[in-house]
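From the shared-data thread, chain only:
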Amino acid sequence: MQNHHLSRNDVAEKLEVTPRYVSSILSGKMNFTLKTISLIEERLGLELFCI
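Structure, as tokens:
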């Protein structure tokens, strides 16, 4: 987020979720499915995993 100058609200808006959801992602309390990871990559224009 820092590298791209994004706030939690910015990320929440791009992901179409609440800032609270973004906080739970950042806290590490969330288990992701591959579908969720793919959606995050698509909406943020980032590559999180390379297989």
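The CA atoms of residues 40 and 46 lie 8 Å apart.
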